[in-house]
Structure prediction request, 680 residues.
Amino acid sequence: MSEQHTINSSLDENRKFSASKEFSANAHIKSISEYKQLYGHSVKNPEQFWKEQSQLIHWFKPFNKVLEWNKPFCMWFLGGKTNVAYNCLDRHLSTARKNKAAIIWEGDNGETKTYTYQQLHREVCKFANVLKQKNIAKGDRVCIYMPMVPELAIAMLACARIGAVHSIVFGGFSAHSLRDRINDCQAKLVVTTDAGIRGGKIVPLKENVDKSLEECPSVQSVIVSRRANAVSSSNSSSGSAICHMKDGRDFWWDDEMNHENLSSVCDAVEMESEDPLFILYTSGTTGKPKGILHTTAGYLLYTTLTFKHIFDYHEEDTFWCTADIGWVTGHSYIVYGPLSNGATTLMFEGTPFYPDPARFWQVVEKYKVNIFYTAPTAIRALAKEGIEWTNKYDLSSLRLLGTVGEPINPEAWMWYYDNIGKKRCPIVDTWWQTETGGILISPIPGAIAQKPGSATLPFFGVQPVVLKEDGTEAAVNEGGYLTIKYPWPSMMRTIYGDPERFKQTYFSKFANLSETLPASPLAGISAGLYFTGDGARKDEDGYFWLMGRIDDVINIAGHRLGTAEIESALVSHKSVAEAAVVPRPHEVKGQSIYAYVTLKQGVDKTHLLKDELIKHVAAEISPIAKPEVIHFADNLPKTRSGKIMRRILKAIAEGKEDVGDTTTLADPSVVAQLLQTREI
Ligand code: PRX
Prediction:
């Protein structure tokens, strides 16, 4: 297999960390033998297992078939009817959870708001009625482009309540990215905010919406919630100075919600199990983002079950996931998984560094957070700031820590374990993807001992296999392609509007190998074998070690970007003839972007132009996609058939002297030129 990065560490990789006896005794799953017994059952009798687990959620009508698998397409819980918002809200109202905090919101500036289940239910019903008044019905797409404000969760749940399909676009994406995502799913309505606030600064979100809507004919209305008035005296007291409202198209959230005729009663629509719940765009290996489609019952059940066991959630816990709801982590583990379990979920608008690098820990102390889930990038960045910040606050409420989004290096794991968990808290390193809907590989904390840097063992019903290029299973500790052998309920159903691309991307690599390899783990299932795009190895204990992407996807600070997307942004600049983008290791962000750029004839290679190109990428995609290095290259290393040899570009960017075999290049002297001009 091709390029991958492994975690280099001086720590003994077989050192295991187990939860305390007390933790395990109180956990839902208490021992490794209990895990193994349930796991064995879940993979030997998957349909029986999922039928048993399906009782965790409320069904308006029971299903009559657990799984229909027309490889690679799968459908779960056929014949059943349920509603995600009903499960997240209504069913708790007849219990002691009625007046329990559902969402605690902590603003960037320390402001706070709490919604009990009853209050959240009321807001969601009202907003669902607003959506209906704006002609939104079951199946219509609604684009949500908002910062981390409670209205974002309310809008999602309101869509789910009436069967509208939400497509949330991360507030850090540019107007161009927003336009493409709106057009791809033909959204009828956009919910946004006048502006976002992060680190004390205002981000003009509505302005981006206005720009994109110049080219989005499908959008009929825009609902705008107010946030800008919370900051800065330069804004007018109404907070509306920051954005323009277009007559007949744009409506203020408050005006709509405070309308005296607006009812707070709205029945949850009885949804078929396979009715779409949401689309979430993610980067792939081409320039066009993929609309990952998730459906109702399977997604709900899987996120409910994983939340309960992987975070070992107990009724009295306060759970904090620091992700943004614009990414799948926020969908599944800020909103749907926690609320379906009747949990208290903390939603945080700010950043780890504002007003100082103790912000996370100050919030942990303020709300006595028990379970804390964040990204390795944040851990590495905060570790650099030193422990005087972590020591400023009382972290004794914490009992479980988690990570997600990228491989965590063992040193960062140990720092987290020692300084945040104070050697008391297990760490769940959770591996999953936008496509998988929920966590697939992770410790179950009371049962599975952790090894720093390993995501450990698969969740119930998940059957990962590491394959070599020829479709045979990799030996112990041998690297290979991570694939999943059998469907699980929250698996993506398709790429919105493009089932061919779905098949091609996730199911084609090994599709024809099984017949020739009778001993292969693919026998009989190859057409349904899910290809993750990640490299991995499995150690002698059966633990999985993730080794990063093996396709042209880069993971910067836990954000996923396609090299092709960044390249097409670069070549859309008038001075650029060609571009090739590769990742290189970065101490804090995991990876950063190194871009080789060939300029058009006659264009001067100036520092000013480099800055301009970096700004151009930020405007085309998002500031998270900014290249760290722009390397002006007169030529790129290409094969005789014109294919760019990325392996060589990557080696050069990584600072290697030996870039490997160059004999297949049309002009091997290009390499020497690049080595001379590279930026380390
Ligand atoms: O490469 C893996 C990495 O993030 C990718 C998925 O990115 P995205 O769809 O944006 O979802 C991120 C949040 C679930 C994966 O293909 N990744 C995610 N979690 C881990 C990880 N790599 C190693 N260890 C993890 N725990």
Remarks:
- The pocket of adenosine-5'-monophosphate-propyl ester is lined by residues 282, 327-329, 404-407, 429-434, 455, 532-534, 546, 549, 555, 560 (CB under 6 Å).
- Residues 557-677 form a domain with the GMP Synthetase; Chain A, domain 3 fold (CATH 3.30.300.30).
- Residues 117-133 form the longest helix (17 residues).
- The radius of gyration is 25 Å.
